[in-house]
Design goal:
With about 150 residues, the chain is mainly alpha-helical. It has helices spanning about 10-25, 35-45, 50-60, 60-75, 95-100, 100-115, 120-145; strands at about 50, 80-85, 85-95. It has a single domain, classed as Winged helix-like DNA-binding domain superfamily/Winged helix DNA-binding domain (Arc Repressor Mutant, subunit A, Orthogonal Bundle), CATH 1.10.10.
């Protein structure tokens, strides 16, 4: 029986919160939290980009990005240097310690995807990814990615 007023956003929120709990538990020994890991993951895809580009890629405001990047730098996972092409900007690069976390983080993310996809066929999971991506694009169109 379908509830007429059941909210998609409610279930997305629940899923997101459970993901945060899972990541915080898995990354606790490394002093990384669920709001910081995403910067490492983004740098695994494109190391050496500007702090501003990281914010744009992740749709996270610049102040939150600065806090996360500063903390990850203090922990030794990444390093910031002035951009030689723009002295106002910082380039963010992974350290050896940050690179060493790649397989661990990717394994934890893969496991989470496996857990939440249990009971779905590959086609259903792919369809869901497309739908959630469209919903995200719809939300970004309204908020323009601002926080």
């Amino acid at each position: 029986m379908k509830k007429e007023n059941e909210s998609i956003a409610r279930w997305i929120s629940i899923l997101h919160r459970q993901f945060q709990i899972y990541l915080n538990k898995e990354l606790k020994d490394y002093d990384i939290n669920s709001s910081e890991y995403i910067f490492l993951v983004n740098l695994y895809e494109r190391d050496g980009i500007s702090q501003e580009q990281l914010s744009a890629n992740l749709f996270i405001n610049k102040a939150a990005t600065t806090r996360a990047i500063s903390r990850l730098e203090k922990l030794g996972y990444l390093h910031r240097t002035r951009d030689p092409m723009d002295s106002r900007a910082y380039l963010v690069t992974l350290t050896v310690k940050g690179l060493e976390m790649r397989d661990f983080i990717k394994t934890k993310l893969s496991y989470w995807t496996q857990i939440i996809s249990t009971g779905l066929t590959t086609e259903e999971a792919d369809d869901f990814k497309q739908k959630i991506k469209q919903m995200s694009m719809n939300a970004l169109a309204v908020t323009k990615g601002d926080e």
